[in-house]
Write a structure and sequence with these properties.
globular; two-stranded antiparallel ribbon; mainly alpha; single chain; Growth Hormone, Chain: A; two-stranded antiparallel sheet
Length: about 450
């Protein structure tokens, strides 16, 4: 496959990013980021692909439970999907800082396409092997974990540095809208046609990501590739984070927040059943989760539009305080009508925190180390949440890895996460460790 020469988004698109027809655009906003052709190509392609991914991710649990009636197997598949992010993300980050990122990402997308078609083929069999399904899902999770840091690393090469905040907020919007749109499309397809066609459609959506990556013009090379022995390369990201106080504080904040305060994301069915009397398979539960996802998407887009140009460290601490208050309210609410606006506002505050942290981190990083540090970000976010959910589930059931501890109510678990979030409001003073108090104009 022939690729075009590296593209300098600032040189070619800088003027266009400031003017949209007769209307001036503020630098750093989501609108300004969307003015860049190459960002639009990659963002829209990966958006379509992620919609398909969430069609598969959400319905895979239903398919697995219908196949086995075993909640343990469902949990095993959930870990196979997301667990590799925790254990293999740093390897993917090292690779992302050593190879041509475009070719590497296209290879990863094609591999996921092939494996997803394989999963569709397994699902089409009358009595598929549960072992084969687990192996296929694990392989998809591994490839995703190895490719995710490179996807995060190319983001700054698609827009000028001053429009990076808007691009980061749009990535967060994409993450949440795909979680809402994917299941909304996949659920009726699953009801009418079964799992195999849904998994096949997901496989086809990877072509959108491949097309966006192939058509966009960006510098896919790292000017300072990673050197040293294999173990030194693997640990280099940790060394960089340890030496840089801002990177270290962002990652520790994200790690603690993900593990202790985000248990509610995976325990939402238990919260709905125990506190609100909502059945997991009911339409009301689907609306509740959609309200959360929509709130999260609005929180992310607000950072890149209305709040563009405001201090992200300050917004992040205020949003974290609001998150602690709203998580407590969601833990205590027992009325379904009140639960909907509460969970929507909780999602709004949640992703304001995530988006602001991501913007501060991305703006601080040099391109030569971006893959390895984004791998640590992915590990602290996507890889840690499943562990927190696992521990939270054991606490609610009354035992932790075989040790009886007495059941803890889901309400107490959520309030504990809110207390940790309040402590983080004090800890995550990013301005004191080098974050600029205001975004660059």
């Amino acid at each position: 496959m022939a690729f075009r020469r590296p593209h300098d988004p600032q040189a070619d698109d800088g003027t266009d990013a400031l003017v949209d027809g007769d209307r001036a655009l503020r630098r750093g906003t989501a609108q300004a980021a969307l003015r860049h052709r190459d960002f639009r190509l990659v963002w829209s392609g990966t958006f379509m692909s992620n919609v398909g991914t969430w069609m598969q991710n959400v319905l895979l649990g239903q398919f697995a439970y219908g196949l086995t009636k075993d909640p343990g197997y469902v949990g095993l598949l959930y870990f196979a999907q997301l667990g590799p992010l925790l254990f293999l993300g740093q390897i993917g980050g090292v690779i992302a800082d050593m190879v041509n990122r475009r070719r590497y990402l296209i290879t990863m997308q094609v591999l996921q396409l092939v494996l997803s078609f394989g999963l569709a083929g397994l699902a089409a069999i009358d009595h598929p092997s549960t072992t084969a399904i687990f192996a296929c899902v694990l392989a998809i999770g591994i490839v995703n974990a190895l490719g995710a840091p490179a996807m995060g690393a190319i983001l700054p090469t698609l827009v000028p540095r001053e429009d990076l905040p808007g691009a980061v907020s749009l990535q967060s919007v994409q993450m949440n809208l795909s979680r809402v749109i994917g299941p909304a499309i996949g659920a009726p397809l699953y009801a009418f046609f079964g799992a195999a066609p849904v998994f096949a459609i997901n496989a086809g959506t990877y072509l959108f990501a491949v097309a966006g990556l192939a058509l966009a013009r960006f510098d896919a090379r790292n000017p300072n590739p990673v050197e040293g022995r294999p173990i030194e390369k693997l640990l280099s990201g940790f060394h960089i984070a340890r030496r840089d106080p801002l990177i270290r504080r962002v990652l520790i904040t994200m790690l603690v927040f993900s593990f202790f305060s985000l248990m509610f994301v995976g325990l939402m069915p238990e919260i709905a059943a125990a506190n609100l009397g909502i059945k997991e398979k009911s339409q009301t539960y689907g609306y509740l989760y959609a309200a959360f996802g929509l709130g999260a998407a609005l929180g992310a887009i607000s950072v890149g539009t209305y709040l563009a140009g405001h201090s992200k460290p300050v917004i992040m601490r205020r949003a974290l305080f609001a998150f602690a208050f709203l998580l407590t309210a969601f833990a205590l609410v027992r009325d379904v009508t009140l639960a909907f606006p509460t969970v929507a506002m909780l999602g709004f505050a949640y992703f304001m925190v995530i988006t602001c942290l991501s913007q501060v981190l991305q703006a601080h990083l040099e391109n030569a180390v971006r893959g390895r540090i984004m791998a640590l970000w992915i590990m602290s976010f996507g890889g840690t949440v499943p562990l927190g959910v696992l521990v939270g589930g054991y606490l609610v059931k009354g035992h932790l890895w075989g040790l009886p501890i007495g059941p803890i109510s889901i309400t107490a678990v959520l309030i504990g996460g809110a207390v940790v979030a309040l402590v983080l409001v004090w800890y995550c003073d990013l301005i004191s460790v080098g974050a600029p108090p205001l975004d660059a104009p």
